[in-house]
């Protein structure tokens, strides 16, 4: 395998469960050493994509190669080269941290001469060195997740998959997990593919693909994606949102989106827009904020919904999908 | 890449790596089992209850028909089988819990054959059953069964065979039921009927016709019978007692040879294990 070939290559990948198409023709490539994020609401097809890439689920169509091997035809070769941290915990809570790792070493047939050193090494990386002989049951949620990450790394995989690695963690633990992802990339050159539905987390990836309803709607570095929106977001609170929205439409020709009980409009130069707003809007304004575009704006721009709203919308087909994939476990 | 501890790499699969994976899974099971002293203790309650509470209690009723053989001696082989059966059920339930709690996914993505994982899991369950079996064998004396090395070795050998077969059954049920409540209700429905119909607690001759038929259809019958024959070959009992308490299992009057009984148990176990391995892949 040439060193320049991508770690992950996905071409027109589809996965259907009966009537429902969870992944609809996804294509992307991840370079060695890259931290690549799949960003999207629950049920967008992120986890299904990961499950296909780590050979747990067979694709319905298209092709995917991981570490140079086809996930369908050479599943075994792929498995030896990947590490996986699932969204749901998969530790044996009755065993100690070291026992969990030792079982993993047995499953991956790691050289016995190096297992102990390697266990110490990965535990040190996630700052659990002192918990080596503690039962997983006795660890906090954040520590358990870190132990899972240590386990995913134990066999020095070329590609590490992290499915919502920080879900349910407190901000401190989340920041810690991010620290490890970065340091492991620096120390071991591991390629990381992660899914998330946290915007701030996606910001930390080298590149992200925004996924909605089984399709990639945008792909690039966080900066490039934000630049592509090309407009600032002006959020205003007023005493009468309905009247204000109508006035924005009549006076400025702007369609306001309602989010979190405030009106949001996108304009090219937000700071210059604010004085005009106060001068021309005849509805009393209680507050105004101007923000550079965020990934949420990118999401809004490409999908027509804010990420949070997409997450909550009950009628969206991919949400149903998630129910199926959970049930299928 | 300042890659890790040098030499950390995952080699290609081989029969040795499969064996190591299976042993790793086995060690996990044994670690968990030995750790769970309460399980070991509670698992002994029922067999001991049958042998030393129920049997003496019923003895007053049965005195005339047992021809001098203590009921607990008669029940001893049946209770040994019963203990194997109960233990296998508990172990199978742990497989269901592995799935519910997500641990199975760790096993499912490993570069290891499904069969290695199932065999490791099964070996762990068999080990757990045999630990309990050995403790019960130690109670042979109080149950009126002599500590004859040949007898004890033979009983232990039969326990191994039975443990393998009932574990295969448990794992099969665990892999074909999709969720814990289903598994639990299937097991609840089976656990006592299989024991009661097997003749573990009563002789299999002279049963009402329908019960005799169901008894012959119960696989555990063919595990209990060789054990009982072995025990009765080593205890003092009159010919009348032997005929009444340890008659061989018959098919339309034909006494089934012990070898055939054992072959039957083994074949059933192997078939169920094959189903379990096939199904396990899908369950993961």
Identify the biggest protein-protein contact and residues per side.
A-B, 42 and 39 residues
The first-level CATH class name of the largest domain in chain A: Alpha Beta
Strand order of the largest sheet of chain B: 1-2
By oligomeric state, this entry counts as: heterodimer
Structural class computed from helices and strand pairing of chain A: alpha/beta
The helix content of chain B is: over 70%
Q: Write the element-wise H/E pattern of chain B from the N-terminal end onward.
A: HHHHHHHHHHEEH
Mean pLDDT of chain A: 85
The largest sheet of chain B, given as strand count, sense and whether it forms a barrel, is:
2 strands, antiparallel
Our estimate of the beta-strand percent of chain A is: 25-35%
Shape of chain A: elongated
Radius of gyration of chain A: 23 Å
CATH-scheme architecture of the largest domain in chain A: 3-Layer(aba) Sandwich
Q: Residue-averaged pLDDT of chain B, rounded? A: 87
- Overall 3D form of chain B: elongated
Ranges of chain A where pLDDT stays below 50 over 5 or more residues in a row are 314-329
């Amino acid at each position: 395998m040439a060193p320049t070939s991508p770690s992950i290559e996905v071409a027109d990948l589809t996965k259907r469960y009966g009537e429902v198409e969870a992944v609809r023709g996804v294509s992307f490539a991840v370079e060695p050493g890259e931290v690549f994020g799949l960003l999207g609401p629950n049920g967008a097809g992120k986890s299904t994509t990961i499950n296909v890439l780590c050979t747990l689920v067979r694709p319905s169509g298209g092709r995917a190669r991981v570490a140079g091997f086809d996930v369908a035809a050479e599943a075994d070769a792929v498995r030896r080269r990947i590490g996986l941290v699932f969204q749901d915990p998969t530790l044996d809570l009755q065993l100690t941290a070291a026992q969990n790792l030792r079982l993993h070493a047995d499953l991956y047939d790691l050289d016995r001469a190096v297992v102990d050193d390697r266990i110490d090494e990965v535990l040190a990386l996630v700052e659990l060195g002192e918990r080596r002989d503690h039962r997983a049951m006795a660890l906090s949620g954040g520590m358990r997740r870190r132990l899972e990450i240590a386990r995913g790394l134990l066999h020095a995989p070329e590609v590490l998959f992290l499915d919502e690695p920080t879900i349910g963690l407190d901000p401190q633990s989340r920041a810690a997990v991010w620290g490890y992802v970065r340091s492991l990339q620096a120390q071991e050159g591991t390629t990381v593919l992660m899914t998330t539905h946290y915007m701030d987390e996606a910001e930390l990836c080298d590149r992200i693909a925004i996924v909605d309803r089984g399709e990639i709607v945008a792909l690039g570095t966080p900066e490039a994606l934000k630049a592509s929106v090309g407009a600032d977001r002006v959020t205003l609170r007023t005493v009468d949102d309905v009247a204000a929205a109508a006035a924005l439409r009549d006076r400025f020709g702007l369609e306001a989106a309602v989010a979190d009980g405030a009106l949001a409009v996108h304009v090219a130069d937000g700071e210059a827009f604010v004085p005009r707003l106060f001068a021309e809007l005849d509805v009393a304004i209680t507050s105004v904020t101007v923000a550079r575009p965020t990934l949420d704006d990118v999401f809004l721009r490409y999908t027509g919904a804010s990420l949070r709203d997409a997450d909550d919308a009950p009628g969206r087909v991919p949400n149903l999908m998630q129910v199926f994939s959970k049930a299928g476990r | 890449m300042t890659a890790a501890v040098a030499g950390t790499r995952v080699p290609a699969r081989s029969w040795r790596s499969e064996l190591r994976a299976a042993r790793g899974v086995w060690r996990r099971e044994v670690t968990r089992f030995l750790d769970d002293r309460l399980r070991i203790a509670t698992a002994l309650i029922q067999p001991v209850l049958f042998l030393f509470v129920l049997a003496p209690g019923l003895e007053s009723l049965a005195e005339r028909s047992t021809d001098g053989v203590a009921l607990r001696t008669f029940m001893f082989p049946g209770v040994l089988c019963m203990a194997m059966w109960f233990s296998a059920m508990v172990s199978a339930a742990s497989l269901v819990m592995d799935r519910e709690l997500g641990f199975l996914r760790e096993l499912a993505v490993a570069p290891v054959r499904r069969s290695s994982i199932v065999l490791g899991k099964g070996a762990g369950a068999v080990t757990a059953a045999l630990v309990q079996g050995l403790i019960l064998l130690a109670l042979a004396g109080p149950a009126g069964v002599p500590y004859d090395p040949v007898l004890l070795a033979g009983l232990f050998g039969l326990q191994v065979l039975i443990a393998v077969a009932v574990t295969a059954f448990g794992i099969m049920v665990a892999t074909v039921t999709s969720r814990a409540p289903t598994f639990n209700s299937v097991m609840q429905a089976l656990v006592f009927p299989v024991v009661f119909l097997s003749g573990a607690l009563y002789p299999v001759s002279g049963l009402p016709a329908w019960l005799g038929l169901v008894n012959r259809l119960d696989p555990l019958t063919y595990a209990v019978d060789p054990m009982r024959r072995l025990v009765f070959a080593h205890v003092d009992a009159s010919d009348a007692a032997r005929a009444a308490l340890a008659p061989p299992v018959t098919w339309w009057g034909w006494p089934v040879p012990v070898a055939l009984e054992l072959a039957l148990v083994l074949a059933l176990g192997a078939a169920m294990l094959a189903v379990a391995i096939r199904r396990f892949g899908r369950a993961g």
